[in-house]
Write a structure and sequence with these properties.
Layout lengths: L2 E11 L15 E10 L4 E8 L4 H16 L7 H11 L7 H20 L4 H4 L6 E6 L9 H14 L3 E5 L5 H15 L4 E5 L6 H12 L5 E3 L7 H10 L4 E3 L6 H9 L5 E2 L9 H13 L10 H10 L6 E3 L17 E3 L12 H5 L5
Parallel strand pairs: 4-5, 4-10, 5-6, 6-7, 7-8, 8-9
Antiparallel strand pairs: 1-2, 2-3, 4-11
The structure holds magnesium ion.
Length: 360
């Protein structure tokens, strides 16, 4: 079988609700879609994203530099194709290049699962048939105290395993109050995570982390800038709350640095940012070797498969941002997602709904 054509498109989908954290605003989901066609008629669909900037650059990189080097390849040679893409653009490696690679890599895995007539999670390992979810949608920093309390109560009623709150207000006491009040309304058995989005300095994080520890925090996410590995190691030694991070890391080598310095407790790789499933599975294997759990960042629709494929995934992050452009929104029941049994990843984009958002 040979790859005959790769069609890409970029869509700008507005956020389902205003989403702000301590350092940025999610201004739009730039969805980069790649569809791979083959000479025997099978197709694979892949995608990646940005939170509002850089999508056009990623699409041009994909079209101009990645597509020409893989046309004619056998699509089942996913590792070979991933390596070809990586070395083709390695001199400009950064945030944009793995985003471009991810759309193609995910399409290749979708295609491979269809060839094998298996749901993607079974092709990748097949550890479980369902996975639980936690929600971030009710905890954005721009929401009022009343709003986050209401959303937390709703999340518990709907059966979510956990809720995540953004923190990083200018006044530390305001963070403490928001976390305390939400813990009060959700009770002790629901997991509560807090996410700093890299806002704090190392010393600030020790003080502010200690202030939050008493509320039985399941993890403290991205307390420091993503490249401050030693800062995270120091912080981890000072706190009892587990440190989670990974959404701002783009390679297995970046994760390795954190593991070697004992600077992280829970890994959060994002398949759209690490160059796709090929690299995500290697990062998952690294985590397993260090006996650390993983909890993927965002892109729940594809991460359901990856989390179900491996033994050490905790749960998946609920942000249903693709709902407006899918043929059918994903159904979560009582905080649990049942994996589909159709071949491939089963994410069916509705081209007519996507059309209104197309920018390139
Ligand atoms: Mg985060």
């Amino acid at each position: 079988m040979k790859i005959t054509q790769i069609a890409s498109a970029l869509y700008r989908i507005p956020p389902l609700r205003p989403r702000k954290d301590a350092i940025q605003e999610f201004s739009a989901m730039e969805l980069l879609l790649a569809e791979i066609f083959t000479d025997d008629g099978l197709t694979g669909v892949g995608y990646s994203y940005t939170i509002g900037q850089g999508g056009k650059a990623a699409k041009v990189l994909l079209d101009e530099d990645l597509v020409p080097c893989i046309l004619g390849e056998d699509p089942s040679n996913v590792e070979r194709i991933w390596q070809k893409m990586w070395w083709r653009i390695h001199a400009v490696v950064g945030g944009i290049s793995p985003v471009a690679m991810a759309a193609i890599d995910i399409a290749l895995w979708d295609l491979k699962a269809k060839m094998a007539e298996l749901p993607l999670y079974k092709l990748l390992g097949g550890y479980r048939d369902q996975i639980s979810v936690y929600t971030t949608e009710g905890g954005w920093l721009n929401m009022s105290l009343e709003e986050i309390k209401e959303e937390a109560i709703k999340a518990v009623e709907e059966g979510f395993t956990g809720v995540k709150l953004k923190v990083g207000k200018e006044d530390p006491l305001e963070d403490v109050k928001r976390v305390r009040e939400v813990r009060k309304v959700i009770g002790d058995s629901i997991k509560l995570m807090v996410d700093v989005n890299q806002k704090w300095t190392s010393t600030e994080a020790i003080t502010r982390g200690k202030q939050l520890e008493e509320f039985n925090i399941f993890w403290l996410e991205e307390p420091l800038p993503h490249d401050d590995v030693s800062g995270h190691a120091t912080l981890k030694a000072h706190l009892t709350v587990p440190i989670a991070l990974g959404e701002s890391l783009y390679t297995k080598q970046a994760f390795k640095a954190y593991l070697e310095q004992n600077a992280v407790s829970i890994l959060q790789p994002d398949v759209g940012r690490v160059g796709g499933i090929t690299e995500w599975m290697k990062i998952a294997a690294l985590a397993e070797a260090w006996n650390l759990p993983i909890a993927p960042h965002f892109l729940m629709e594809i991460h359901f498969h990856l989390a179900a494929a491996v033994p050490h995934a905790l749960f998946v992050e609920y942000i249903p941002q693709l709902d407006p452009v899918l043929e059918e929104p994903f159904k979560i029941k009582k905080g649990i997602f049942q994996l589909p049994q159709t071949p491939g990843h089963g994410i069916r984009f509705d081209k007519s709904k996507l059309k209104i958002y197309q920018v390139l």
